[in-house]
Specification:
Structural class: mainly alpha
Number of helices: 49
Strand order of the largest sheet: 1-2
Helix content: 55-70%
Strand content: under 5%
Radius of gyration: 33 Å
Number of strands: 2
């Protein structure tokens, strides 16, 4: 479609004929013009009349022939390579026709926009082959594009190349836009624009993109009925009550969707209290009907979203600790980025060779010990890192006190870090008696001291209520017998060992197992028990953040971490509804039969149980306590964790190629105009502002994958693995945490989230200003409200941005860290985090509960993206239904086709020459269908292609070709076990084949990395040939 302003640029020429706009063109004229302008086939057919321009006609000068003709003066450079009059006349005809087509499309308005879009959609390179169906040159261009995309980005788009070769009036500036505007290779715009545009032209480009937005507004109004004047901000003052999903009736009718996960079930619950609670608890990618009136979904963000915001200080602290180690290891005050990244690896090599520096692991453990000693240490860099930890540790304590999870006077003398201890449960279990002896001595000392000071406290208690309470506790403690102290020791150890891996037991250990002794039990100095503590400061920080982010945000939102009040409200409403069944009548007002009443009561009771189960399950998943195994150290459980990590290492080497359609999410949520105006244009013209915007996005709590790699590990179902395990298990887990960088998935996720976050921030700030000024459109009001921002917050955000923010070349930099209005800052940042995770699909509470069990994580490994995509892409697009959605869908299909091509090329497989195969694979890889395509692919595998889309195309989906039936149903782990038995069986039977060798190779970590897979394929092939193995076994 024409993503540009069609007016022709003038280059210092004044003798140009005025442009006559055609009267209302007919539908046939409009569509003909569109296909000649925006479709390669149409453009080629219309350009065939041009004669051979290189045939020399004596005495003919093409420049002189046209330079004074007002119709062609602006195209004089096009005639520089024409050497005969016949070719020049044919060129004139073509230019005339192209200009007329452009004017026709411009005059046709919305019809011209739709026709141009259709011409692009049905173009061969767009929907089907992206070069695979073209002749040799087409395939070469595709291969070049794929190779370049692996490095510095795709350098050219097949569609624009074809149009450039067959049109005379298409400029380089238009090509730079239409690479992304045609929705083929959006990531290539920066490279293309850098090639075609000067700095001045880039600025002009930005202005043109801003003007293009009017065309999409017109399309929305005419086609989708989303137009209308601005809505007054007063509409946002609607009282918040029970809310209903937009298009709820339609969503309810979609097979399987309404019951797929606890989030959607709660949003569609029979009970208003469930609906209200889930909005506060879980992040929803969907909109509510009430958002159209400006009612915010959840002001300040849900608990889940606010938990994500804690990732920003965590990532910042870890990065500073990494820097401190690089300073120590390289003995430099200012380590480079490479020194910081490579120092941990080099330290392990030095350990092997006998160096005298601490390894990174040892350094982090020393930082932990320093944190228990007033942040002092003989090594300055260790002390520096301990002070970094102290900042986040103090912030968490303040947050916990503010949420009333801890008393204000919580402290241990000479040990300011006692609170967030992470116990080494393996060592405590192995040396229980030694640990018990330390605790026994501590409790005995405390008991004797309490007895001595009892009289003094009895005097003080009369004057101070607080001292009175303390004296009562001291008196109770002083009366403990030796036997009771021993029992207390054993009870304390059992409590420690029974706590969940990955959580800091601040609640059960500090509070203690016995009522009268609360807050008095384990205030032992950490130095006395440090041999039984995990002092690795990185592991402590991860566990500490996971624990406190959930508990603090739950307590602040609901008043307690167990949400008992909200669950009671759900039960109360259900009981009222059940009681009201006695008065139930039919449509004629007559009392229904007892059987009908009984069924309704049973239905409401089932709905109540389901609602409570789902709310409790989402709460527990956020706290890391859902479906905890009875024996976390069982061999089967540990084997499953290792298998999932190995699957990640061996199978997701091409994950970055699969992520190409992520780009479509930006267009789907914010449209082409904003994507280019607020995203790509700044990349060309102001990289400094883009970097500042990226830092702003990271400060909000997202786009931190280079440090945390949270998205990739969530998709691989390995992020919640907090088990201790053997050295081998820890090594596999450690490799998994770094694999995102090796596979380039971490940098891809970080850059895509920063890019989309920049666009999100700009749109939020612009919309907030319009709402504050009373000039916002209904769409802007609705989107802000869905993000948790009502009219009052929009006003406050606008004021803070006006005071602290700035605009650089169209990039709006919020500088939210400087905002004094805390609620405005948190609301703005939570809106950014929510929208970024909607665009770059990151699974949350929109996963089925069974996928959060240990068995479910193994069976459902690598399936969570498609499940989450059902809400974050499919249902979200269904609700939006506007021109932005249409553009996003076509973008996703095109990038899905590109993913298919890239995957086939990396695997060394031939590209299909069937358009239907391209179309179905594009649909599969696009993510638009959510888990529906997962069902289709499993059905194809189970029926050998007789059921599913492959029955239409004759070829199985590329995504499932390497899996066997067991793997299709039960995930990659059983698939791997089956392959192991097949390979070992073939070795003992002496009939090993190349197919068996391939299966064995696929069990190796890193074997699927897309940039080395081709080399490994050659090694595998050479090995099979050297061993003279047959291709397959002949039976």
């Amino acid at each position: 479609m024409p993503f540009y302003e069609p007016t022709v640029r003038v280059k210092e020429l004044t003798n140009i004929a005025p442009v006559e706009q055609p009267d209302d063109p007919s539908l046939g004229e409009t569509w003909g013009a569109a296909f000649r302008t925006e479709n390669i086939v149409g453009s080629y057919l219309s350009s065939r009349g041009v004669q051979n321009p290189y045939e020399v006609e004596q005495g003919f000068n093409s420049i002189d022939y046209v330079k004074d003709d007002p119709d062609f003066a602006q195209h004089v450079e096009r005639f520089g390579g024409v050497f005969n009059r016949k070719a020049a006349d044919a060129l004139k005809v073509q230019i005339k026709r192209e200009e007329e087509d452009r004017r026709t499309l411009d005059a046709a308005g919305i019809n011209g926009t739709i026709a141009s879009l259709a011409a692009g959609v049905f173009d061969i390179p767009t929907v089907f082959s992206v070069g695979g169906g073209i002749a040799g040159a087409g395939r070469t261009a595709l291969g070049t594009a794929i190779r370049t995309s692996a490095g510095a980005g795709i350098d050219a788009a097949v569609s624009e190349t074809g149009l450039q070769l067959t049109q005379q009036t298409r400029t380089g500036e238009e090509t730079a836009f239409n690479v992304g505007g045609s929705i083929l290779l959006g990531g290539a715009l920066g490279t293309l624009a850098g090639r075609y545009l000067s700095n001045a032209e880039a600025s002009a480009l930005t202005r043109k993109i801003e003007e293009q937005g009017r065309g999409f507004d017109e399309a929305d109004a005419a086609v989708f009925g989303t137009g209308g004047g601005a809505q007054s901000a007063g509409a946002a003052a609607v009282t918040k009550g029970p809310m209903h999903l937009k298009d709820e009736a339609l969503i309810n009718k979609i097979w399987g969707v309404r019951s797929q996960d606890p989030l959607i079930r709660s949003q569609l619950s029979d009970f208003d209290e469930t609906r209200n609670t889930v909005r506060q608890l879980a992040e929803t990618p969907l909109e509510y009907a009430e958002n159209a009136q400006g009612v915010a979904t959840e002001i300040g963000g849900s608990v889940e979203t606010r938990m994500k915001m804690w990732q920003a200080p965590l990532a910042d602290s870890l990065q500073q600790i990494d820097t401190a180690y690089a300073k120590y290891f390289h003995s430099t005050p200012e380590p480079t980025g490479w020194q910081r990244r490579l120092a941990p690896m080099r330290s392990e090599m030095q350990r092997i060779t006998g160096g005298d520096k601490l390894t990174f692991k040892q350094f982090k453990e020393e930082v932990g010990r320093a944190a228990f000693s007033g942040d002092t240490h003989a090594i300055p860099e260790v002390a520096e890192a301990a002070k970094v930890y102290r900042q986040i540790d103090d912030a968490m304590k303040r947050a916990a006190i503010e949420a009333r999870l801890l008393p204000e006077d919580i402290a241990v003398e000479a040990d300011i870090s006692h609170l967030f201890r992470m116990y080494n449960k393996d060592k405590i279990a192995a040396y229980r008696s030694d640990f018990g002896r330390i605790l026994h001595d501590y409790f005995i000392t405390k008991r004797d001291a309490a007895a001595k000071i009892g009289d003094a406290e009895n005097v003080a208690r009369k004057a101070d209520a607080k001292a009175d309470a303390a004296a009562k506790k001291a008196e109770e403690f002083s009366r403990l017998s030796d036997q009771e102290v021993s029992e207390l020791v054993e009870e304390t150890i059992d409590t420690i060992l029974g706590n969940v891996d990955g959580r800091i037991p601040y609640d059960s250990i500090v509070s203690g197992p016995r009522g009268p002794l609360k807050e008095r039990l384990l205030r032992i100095e950490s130095k006395k028990i440090q041999e039984f503590l995990n002092t690795d400061i990185e592991e402590v920080l991860h566990a500490q953040t996971r624990t406190m982010s959930a508990d603090v945000e739950l307590a602040k939102k609901f008043g307690s971490v167990d949400m008992s009040e909200q669950i009671a409200k759900i039960n109360d409403e259900a009981n009222r509804r059940i009681a009201a069944v006695d008065r139930m009548t039919d449509k004629d007002g007559k009392a229904v039969s007892p059987e009908v009443k009984a069924k309704e009561r049973a239905r409401l009771d089932r709905s109540r149980k389901s609602a409570v189960r789902d709310i409790e399950a989402m709460r527990d998943r956020l706290r890391g306590q859902y479906a905890l195994p009875s024996n976390p150290d069982g061999i089967v459980l540990r084997a499953g964790r290792v298998a999932r990590n190995l699957n990640y290492l061996r199978l997701l080497g091409g994950m970055t190629l699969s992520a190409f359609p992520d780009m479509a999410g930006i267009v789907l949520k914010h449209g082409l105009t904003s994507t280019f105006r607020d995203g790509f244009a700044p990349l060309v013209s102001n990289m400094k502002a883009v970097k500042l915007a990226g830092a702003e996005v990271k400060a909000a709590g997202t786009a931190l994958d280079m440090i945390l790699d949270s998205r990739a590990m969530s998709l691989a179902e390995i992020g919640d693995d907090f088990g201790r395990g053997s050295k081998f298990e820890r090594a596999i887990k450690s490799a998994g945490t770094r694999f995102g960088v090796v596979s380039l998935m971490a940098p891809w996720n970080a850059s895509m989230k920063q890019f989309s976050g920049m666009i999100v921030m700009t749109n939020l700030l612009r919309a907030a200003e319009k709402v504050a000024n009373g000039g916002a459109s209904p769409k802007e009001i609705r989107k802000l409200a869905a993000a948790g921002i009502n009219a009052d917050l929009a006003q406050r955000i606008t004021q803070q941005f006006a005071k602290h923010g700035e605009t650089q070349s169209g990039v709006l930099l919020a500088k939210a860290g400087a905002w004094e209005d805390r609620l405005a800052r948190e609301a703005f940042r939570s809106a950014v985090v929510r929208d970024v995770d909607r665009i770059i699909v990151t699974p949350g509470q929109d996963k089925p509960l069974w996928m959060s069990t240990e068995l479910g994580k193994t069976v459902g490994q690598f399936k969570s993206f498609n499940v989450s995509a059902m809400q974050r892409i499919a249902l979200s697009a269904l609700q939006q239904r506007d021109a932005e959605t249409l553009a996003g869908v076509v973008t996703a299909l095109s990038l899905g086709a590109m993913t298919y091509a890239a995957k086939q090329a990396v695997a060394g497989k031939e590209l299909s020459d069937k358009p239907s195969v391209w179309a179905t694979n594009a649909f599969d890889w696009s993510g638009l269908a959510g888990w529906f395509m997962e069902v289709n692919n499993v059905a194809e595998k189970a029926t050998r292609g007789r059921v599913g889309l492959s029955a239409l195309t004759g070829e199985q989906m590329s995504r499932y070709q390497s899996r066997n039936v067991v793997g299709a149903f039960l995930g990659p782990t059983p698939d791997a076990v089956s392959d192991i038995f097949q390979f070992t069986g073939s070795m003992f039977a002496g009939d090993t084949t190349k197919s068996d060798l391939r299966k064995m190779r696929q069990l190796l970590p890193f074997q699927n990395l897309f940039y080395v897979r081709g080399l490994l394929n050659q090694v595998e092939s050479a090995t099979g040939d050297a061993l003279k193995l047959p291709e397959t076994r002949k039976n």
